[in-house]
Records
---
Amino acid sequence: MASFLSTGNLVSSTGIDQQQVSGYTIVAERLNFLRFVSHFRSVHRGQFFTTMRTTTVRKLLPDQWGYLCCVHTPDGGPCGLLSHLTSTVEIKADDYNIEEGEKILELLINKFGCLNTFSCIPFRSGRTMLPIVLDGVPRLSIESQRIHNVAHFLRNLKCSGHIIKDLEVAAISGDEQAYPGLFLHTQAARMTRPVLNLSSRKVEYIGPMEQTYLMIGITGTSDESRLYSHEEMSSMAQLSLIASLTPFSDMNQSPRNMYQCQMGKQTMGTPIHNIHGRTDNKMYKLHNPQCPLVRTNIHTENKFDEYPNGTNAVVAVISYTGYDMEDSMILNKSSFERGFGHASVYKSKIIDIGAEGIHAGKNEDKLKLGNPVTFKQNRSSGVATVPDAMYEGLDQDGLPRVGETVKQDDPLYCVIHNDDRK
């Protein structure tokens, strides 16, 4: 299990009957804050589908609109397979109380006269009874002409706070190309997102299954409430957290917006604030990050100024020949000397004292870090076998001094065998 969590590979002679045996885990890289956040707001459909020739799995289906971003996806092989959650979507983390579900069923029995026994016959056979399914289990039966009234009643209870706010109410009548019935979902690990309920003028959380059977208008459609039952809270609701940071994305072509989602996660910026106490293998930090001159509301709401990325640059687009433009850039020498684009690379090196020295096999307890100069002064019998000049850059603890400039071939540490004879 430890190997599986660290590598994401299933090591087995049988493959455990899985479609893929690798790629189950992703290392949460801290290159910058945008990359770190996007790791926890993404959904991967599986490595197996990369080998398939069909493109159906890469499409954004109607029930995914508003839950998975239509722009933020990698280009190349995993395009469409690695999708990112939108900025407004919420994942129900806590499981519901069983009494809440029973309370809803009891309310439907008393209010609408639903049958307590699941004895309905499919609608297409001529009967008028439809099932009420709670979390995948058929529980009640209801007349088909009252199914939309029940759904409207439950939505008003959601908006007023009398029942759980993220209850999913999918009312499918016999006219739809699906199995008819009233499907209620209350369990955890479901995607929900807020929309404006035009009848109650309150915020309602809906799920992917019920979204297909709702009339949701864009922002500013309140005057046409006869056509729509709900309205989007924001025009950016279909974009992910990273895609919504691009200003004037509606004035840009779609591939450029998709490229920007990837380039924004590769910029050098401010990944963390406690960088001096971290032990990451490698980390980059920009010396002079700046706030963007043009930003969206998402940038301010999510406080991305706490982790700024990149600097503002003035770009001159010049056609050299008068006909076309080449991909080139000229840096201003003065701005470069004043720190434009300067950054530091932090590299961590782990020192295992037990693996050092000739007698490290049986005498690991006698090995320690130290400076031979100090060691020779404190112990009369101690003899430094290496000239003291080699250790002038090391402190008494055998490590470089804080703030010391370490150059090529300079010693990084010194291990001393704590024995009178060595």
---
Amino acid sequence: MSGVIYAITRDGNLLWYKDLANDGTESWAPASGHVVGRGGWTGFQGVFAGDGGVIYAITRDGNLLWYKDLANDGTESWAPASGHVIGRGGWTGFQGVFAGDGGVIYAITRDGNLLWYKDLANNGTESWAPASGHVIGRGGWTGFQGVFAGDGGVIYAITRDGNLLWYKDLANDGTESWAPASGHVIGRGGWTGFQGVFAAH
């Protein structure tokens, strides 16, 4: 997402920030901190970002909504279909939901399976890849402290004893196809000591 960060205020506004240099120096776009969504953003069960300005929101009654920040420059400029329902019911029934890139969404069921979805149209219409909802990881995915996606099918998981694990969904098409090194420890200890951990896209 090219250094873009979204933040939801306690009174429900959505703010836009952009880390311009993206090199470890303090360099923000002039419009950083501007309101791009006015009110209502605290009313969701969950909010998470895909790539290219796409934002998904889960309503308290279980629908999945699609938004797209068209300008992606700190001005309030949304795609006409923003706020449309693209998934009807059931999205509050997961232990966790997070986005990869290219319209891919992963969901963890309460019994520990990892499901794959792909928002094919990615334009606010209800258009899912045929394999959407397929199990690509069987059991054990609720045993982590946190799970989040990077780019290109990569998924990171934090164990309860603080290790960071690496996985890669090779096919990225709803089939169970993992890179051989999936599940390997790439960070030893200390990863549960953070308030939150997430990857950029």
